[in-house]
Design brief:
The complex is a heterodimer of chains A (845) and B (451). The relative contact order of chain A is 0.05. Chain A is mainly alpha-helical. Chain A has a five-stranded antiparallel β-sheet, with helices on both faces. Helix content of chain A is 60%, strand content 5%. Chain A is globular, with a radius of gyration of 34 Å. Chain B is α+β, with helices and mostly antiparallel strands and 451 residues long. In chain B, strands 13-16-9-8-26-24-19-22-21 form a nine-stranded mixed β-sheet. In chain B, strand 3 and strand 4 (56-63) form a beta hairpin. Chain B starts with a strand and ends with a strand. Mean pLDDT of chain B is 84; it is low at 146-168 and 238-251. The chains are: A mainly alpha (845), B alpha+beta (451). Chains A and B meet through helix 2, helix 4, helix 8, helix 11 and helix 14 of A and strand 2, strand 4, helix 2, helix 4 and strand 7 of B.
Chain lengths: 845, 451
């Protein structure tokens, strides 16, 4: 419905202000109101149409309320409908006048024609006027019992509308209970679907205050309700099917047979032409199988083709929605999509929002076998007329290079970009070459030769300029002209608007000075003088800092600014794995499109019944890091299904045997493919990620130009004697808690689990025994798939020094996050490697 | 669950605006339109179909130059809302016959009537054209189709999106023919959008067919329909498995990578004889969507030659050869090629005696455009363009120009060889045999030759 015109809104020239027109209409309506002349309905229709059209474009026609109501005493259904529309729109701002309509609406609610009854009831409930609710209860009560299903569907929605006007009236009239009865008994599926929508909304909102509503809401997820809906699923409209599927995704089946039953029942939903149904089914399948690694992989294989078909069959908008989800899946399991890379090639006429997603997917699926083709394709896009996409493509090439496939060839291409003489291409390529050099210093020779030919005058973008300057400083010994280029840059200090570039300039000159003192000394002086006089606080501070450092001791200064560097092995990821898991939990919602979990863009009240993870995923790992106060107890108290060494619950969750995914009709043909091929892929991707977070962290410091970082200057500790652990170590939980609270985290790392390890985690107990055999003992464990959490401890063999470990394993992405606290922090690194090597052997025969 | 639904014209006027839940502020349509408009002006390309401003999620699809939009504060399924918007547009089209700004403005009361029944309090009630018939009482005011730009797939294609074209039928499901009699007929269109990328040496780098079988039924009494497809049709990952060579053998075998079906389609005998059975709902719908990556013969070959002719000059020769039978012809062909940014002039030379060709150099985006009305199968066409540059090209022309892309529509031709063998109306009505129309349309989606 159109909004009533706002007073502060100036009407656009194309729209009449409407003052005189409205009074004109008023007059005409009055004339017609009492008339019974033949053909009067046609004239009324014309007038009503005008009124509605004004309403649509935002002219306030609320002053006609009285006349409209008078005219609506008519058997003409088209007129009635227009009048209802009008009344529904303006009743809220004219509550007194709305009272006028009650009479005829109530009369219509008792009409012989079910259509009129339904229409009137819907309009009555849409008035949104609080003081009219008393009229609603009775009508809704009879509407819910109406023999006509149309009236009942309207009545069910009416109950929800009533709830929003006056929750108390709705609950007092016991309408939720009536809806619950209809949910399970009404023969019409749309009535059932509306009951489900209404009850979810009502109970979710009530659940914040009422225990009973909370329990009621739980019953929606009970086996009888879920099965009842599932068995009728094909009778529902495609939209209602989505609703049911969404509900079932929250249901927790008791065993794997149940899971297979559900999946077999819904298998054909994957071939539905409606993308919403397919995605809802996909979500359900993915969540059902989270704890069954093999079947989970099968699901990925299964959903691939239907999703790709949806991407290419719908409008660009529909494609985008599906592609966003595919993007998420590709990011989680790139190896499964590695052979489908051609589907992610961009088409020249695609909107850029689609291209961007595809570029990221291409980057993700690149591996040894397809890198050449992918990079060739990406290089085509780099010459694209669409400049933002050209830039993204170059970045994609760089990202693939950093993943260390076929670096040799890629470096060549990047260097070709540098020679392309398009300024944005050069800029992007420079930034990439810089990153590459940080990771592969061995390429410096080739790169420097090309970079040396680039004139700094042609580079305008701050990021690219900073990259160039960094290289000049870092490799000044290899670049003949480095001191002189820097000199000319310093001379133009005042023209340099970017503080980032000036910061880099300072550091680069310092580095250059240590390598080629005689040539740089003068420039350094000029740079420091300019820097100290700089109006930008950071630039000023850094210049001053360098100056004093040099004054204090040149050798120390060199150690600070120009320490020996280690190559970066892994660049810090922008998104933490918790955030990614959270998004995955919210599959088939906007979170996936925005690539953010819902709490980042939605207010609490609107997450409502749609949020998946709030009730189920109470094991919120991310938020805990700050207050890891009393882990043992917390774990016990917060998470009902955390087990402190119990085994009964495991049995229910574990598939009965290894061949469980073979359950009768769930695609035996696929099993063989999955079993043979992707396994090897899995292994290969996982060997890639080395875990030396500590190294990377200080290398990054340097690259950011933060030469101030003192950490790298510390000489590495002399290698200590090998660490031996006490196999019979003992620690009571309270001591553990106390120590955990007192000690700082000495190491925090992320570690990739082997697929076999993840697979074996279906029985968490096995991990405990395994670790025990490596003299690492468990004190508490819990969680459910995909997130498990363990607390371990270990003790040095020779002395009572203790190590404490928090280990959070996510089977969904095969990552283990480890936090180590130690009495003797000097050996925590050794302990960490010991722990990781033990963990990596888990699941291996 | 959605909060509001509205349709905006290209200029941003509200044509219809329906607020279902009163949760989103009134000015949302303006906020939405401004955002969409500035997205483009800020050089970020098209606004994505979903975005969030101050906690309100805005969804939109573009249909027939109109923006169909919805808002909500809830974290809903994006696919659900976008599918819904597309469906609403189609239901409206079913009723109006023609969907454009004019027809929508004339029939906005009917559209409100539809919207009231399609969605209640933000929840979808029904989108079935047939079910809706019993609740909708306004008669559509049919817009004169002859005044509209030429219909058919080409018209839609010209908008530059990859929309599936509607059929050329512009008849409302509720309006009767002049004379009051309803004509008994059913239309089946096999529409294939093909994407091909040729490498600089003419090899096919990627090729894909995205097809759909679209049906629009005007049969009274909703009889059962049986559609038979090629008997040798197979479904599976075409040629991907190394053990399966069959797909590359045997002329005429059609291998679909994957397909999906409309809800009404029953597949009881599909595995045996490749027939689809259905009781078609009223209005237009896709019986089946399919995707093929199996190799096929591309309808056009494009050869491009770029030669430097002096310091500030170059010549481009584009040859297009139609490799389909001479009994069919392609229509509304447009060949485009981005030229180097420093191109200042282009003069064109066509073969002597050619008619119906247009050539143009688009100064603003430095693009060469060559339009042909019609290409008959087996023929070859050549365009020579002489370019003048404002600066030396340093032998980099190939990196700064291209690729050549092409759009076209070929009717009564389909690249995949998928066929509707027969279309059977199971229970014949008493009247004469209804008209049955089966048509094939192939059009370019992304047809690109690199330099």
């Amino acid at each position: 419905m159109a909004p009533p015109a706002q007073s502060n809104r100036s009407p656009s020239p194309s729209q009449p202000s409407g003052k005189s027109e409205v009074s004109d209409l008023k007059l005409q309506l009055r004339q017609l109101a009492g008339s019974r002349a033949p053909g009067v309905d046609d004239s009324k229709r014309e007038l009503f149409k005008k009124v509605i059209s004004y309403m649509t474009i935002g002219i306030d026609v609320s002053s006609l309320f009285g006349e409209m109501v008078m005219c609506s005493v008519t058997p003409d259904i088209v007129l009635k409908k227009m009048c209802y529309l009008y009344v529904g729109n303006y009743a809220k701002v004219n509550p007194d006048l709305a009272l006028l309509t009650i009479n005829f609406l109530q009369r219509d609610c008792k009409d012989e024609d079910p259509m009129i009854r339904g229409l009137a009831l819907r309009s009555l409930c849409s008035l949104r006027v609080a003081n009219l609710v008393e009229y609603l209860v009775g009508q809704l009560g009879s509407g819910l019992k109406d023999s006509n299903s149309y009236v009942r569907t309207v009545a069910v929605m009416g109950v929800l509308k009533l709830y929003h006007i006056s929750a108390l009236t709705c609950v007092d009239a016991d309408f939720p209970a009536v809806l619950k009865h209809l949910l399970l008994n009404d023969p019409d599926t749309q009535v059932v679907a509306n009951c489900l929508s209404a009850l979810q909304e009502i109970w979710s909102s009530e659940a914040t205050t009422s225990e009973e509503a909370l329990r009621d809401r739980e019953t929606l997820l009970s086996k009888p309700v879920v099965y009842y809906l599932l068995n009728r699923i094909k009778e529902f409209s495609e939209w209602a099917q989505c609703l049911v599927l969404e509900l079932v995704a929250k249901y927790v089946p008791s065993d794997s047979n149940e899971i297979f039953d559900i999946m077999n029942l819904l298998e054909d939903r994957l071939h539905h032409a409606n993308g919403a149904v397919v995605l809802a089914t996909t979500k359900l399948f993915l969540h059902l199988t989270l704890s069954m690694t093999d079947v989970h992989q099968q699901v990925y294989e299964r959903i691939k083709a239907p999703l790709l078909t949806l991407v290419s069959s719908g409008s660009p908008e529909q494609s985008y929605a599906v592609l966003s989800h595919l993007h998420l899946l590709v990011m989680r399991a790139p190896y499964i999509f590695a052979s489908d890379y051609k589907h992610f090639y961009c088409q020249y006429n695609e909107p850029s929002y689609v291209k961007k997603l595809k570029l990221e997917m291409l980057t993700a699926v690149a591996n040894e076998s397809n890198t050449y083709e992918i990079v060739t394709e990406l290089c085509e896009y780099a010459a694209n007329v669409d400049i933002p996409i050209a830039r993204e493509s170059i970045r994609a090439v760089g990202k693939i290079a950093l993943e260390q496939y076929d670096v040799n060839a890629i470096v060549d291409r990047l260097l070709q970009f540098l020679e392309m003489e398009k300024d944005y291409v050069t800029s992007e390529a420079l930034v990439l070459v810089k990153d590459l050099l940080r990771k592969y210093p061995q390429w410096s020779h080739d790169c420097i030769a090309v970079v040396g030919n680039i004139s700094s005058k042609n580079i305008q973008e701050p990021k690219a300029k900073a990259a160039l300057i960094w290289m000049l400083g870092e490799y000044s010994q290899d670049m003949q002209d480095a001191p002189y280029i820097l000199e000319s840059l310093i001379e133009n200090w005042d023209d340099e608007h970017s503080a980032e570039v000036r910061l880099h300039l300072l550091t680069a000159v310092m580095k250059c000075f240590f390598k080629r003192p005689p040539e740089t000394q003068k420039t350094l002086g000029a740079a420091l003088a300019a820097g100290v006089a700089d109006f930008h606080q950071d630039v000023h501070d850094r210049a001053l800092f360098y100056y004093r450092l040099l004054q204090y001791n040149v050798t120390v200064a060199e150690r600070v600014v120009n320490p020996p560097k280690q190559a970066v092995s892994v660049f810090a990821d922008t998104q933490s794995s918790e955030v990614k898991d959270r998004i995955f939990d919210e599959f088939n919602t906007l979170s996936v499109v925005y690539q953010k979990p819902s709490y980042m863009f939605t207010d609490k009240e609107h997450r409502g019944p749609f949020e998946f993870s709030d009730e189920l995923g109470n094991l919120s790992i991310g938020t805990e890091s700050t207050d890891t106060g009393v882990p043992g107890h917390r774990v016990e108290a917060n998470d009902k299904d955390l087990l402190l060494s119990t085994s009964e619950e495991e049995e229910t969750r574990v598939p009965s045997n290894n061949g469980a995914y073979n359950a009768p009709s769930y695609d035996s043909s696929l099993v063989s493919i999955v079993a043979s091929q992707p396994q090897s892929d899995l292994l290969s991707t996982n060997t890639v990620v080395p875990s030396s977070a500590s190294q990377s962290s200080f290398a990054i410091d340097n690259l950011l130009g933060l030469g101030v970082s003192v950490t790298p200057a510390l000489a590495p500790a002399p290698s200590p004697p090998p660490l031996n652990l006490n196999p019979k170590a003992a620690l009571d939980p309270s001591t553990f808690q106390q120590k955990w609270r007192q000690l700082p985290i000495s190491l925090s790392q992320e570690y990739s689990m082997s697929p076999s390890g993840v697979g074996a985690l279906t029985t968490p107990q096995a991990l405990l025994l395994h670790m025990q055999s490596h003299s690492v003992h468990c004190i508490a464990s819990g969680g459910q798939s995909p997130n498990f959490k363990f607390f371990f401890f270990a003790q040095k063999a020779e002395e009572p020094s203790i190590f404490l470990v928090e280990c959070v394993i996510s089977t969904a992405n095969s990552k283990a996050q480890i936090k180590i606290k130690a009495d003797d922090q000097s050996v925590s690194q050794e302990f960490s490697s010991l722990f990781q090597s033990a963990l990596s052997k888990f699941g291996l025969p | 669950m959605i909060s509001q639904f509205f349709v905006l014209s290209q200029r941003g006027d509200n044509i219809v605006f329906r607020d279902y839940r009163g949760e989103v502020q009134k000015g949302s349509a303006e906020i939405f339109f401004r955002k969409v408009k500035f997205w483009k002006e800020d050089g970020e390309g098209d606004a994505p179909p979903v975005f969030n401003v101050d906690g309100v999620n805005y969804f939109h699809v573009k249909v027939a130059g109109l923006l169909f939009a919805a808002t909500t504060r809830a974290n809903v399924s994006p696919s659900f809302v976008l599918e819904l918007l597309q469906r609403i547009a189609r239901v409206i089209k079913d009723y109006l016959g023609v969907l454009n700004e004019d027809s929508l403005r004339k029939n906005f009361v009917l559209v409100y009537e539809l919207l009231d029944e399609v969605i209640d309090f933000g929840y979808v009630q029904t989108t079935s054209t047939e079910v809706l018939k019993s609740y909708v009482f306004n008669e559509p005011l049919v817009v004169d189709a002859s005044r509209m730009p030429p219909l058919g797939p080409a018209a839609i294609f010209r908008q530059g999106t990859k929309r599936m074209p509607g059929t050329a039928i512009t008849k409302s499901v509720v309006a009767n023919e002049p004379g009051g009699r309803k004509r008994e007929e059913i239309f089946v269109d096999v529409i294939e959008k093909i994407s091909v990328t040729f490498s600089s040496s003419g090899y096919i780098l990627t090729s894909e067919i995205d097809g759909t079988i679209q049906m629009k039924s005007y049969l009274t009494g909703n009889p059962e329909i049986r559609v038979a497809l090629n008997e040798d049709l197979s479904i599976g990952q075409g040629g991907r498995s190394i053990h399966d060579y069959s797909s590359s053998f045997g002329a005429g075998t059609v291998t679909l990578d994957d397909c999906n079906f409309h809800e009404s389609v029953r597949l009881d005998s599909f595995d045996i004889d490749r027939t689809l059975t259905m009781i078609p709902p009223d209005g237009e719908f896709s019986v089946m969507n399919y995707r093929i990556t199996q190799e096929f013969k591309p309808p056009f070959r494009i050869n491009t030659l770029v030669e430097e002719a002096g310091l500030l000059k170059a010549e481009v020769i584009i040859k297009v050869r139609a490799e389909f039978p001479s009994s069919v012809s392609a229509n509304t062909i447009l060949v485009q090629m981005p030229l180097p940014a420093y191109t200042i002039r282009a003069s064109f030379e066509l073969e002597p005696g050619t008619v119906g060709n247009t050539t143009d150099f688009k100064e603003a985006n430095k693009r060469l455009e060559w339009g042909l009305k019609k290409i008959i199968g087996g023929s070859e066409h050549t365009l020579r363009a002489k370019l003048t540059f404002s600066q030396e090209s340093h032998g980099n022309i190939l990196k700064e120009a291209g690729p050549v892309s092409m759009t076209f529509t070929i009717s009564m031709y389909n690249a995949s060889k998928l066929q509707v063998k027969y279309l059977q109306i199971v229970k014949k009505t008493k009247t004469d045999n209804p008209y049955r129309w089966v048509r094939y349309i192939t059009q370019a989606n992304s047809y690109v030759a690199r330099l």
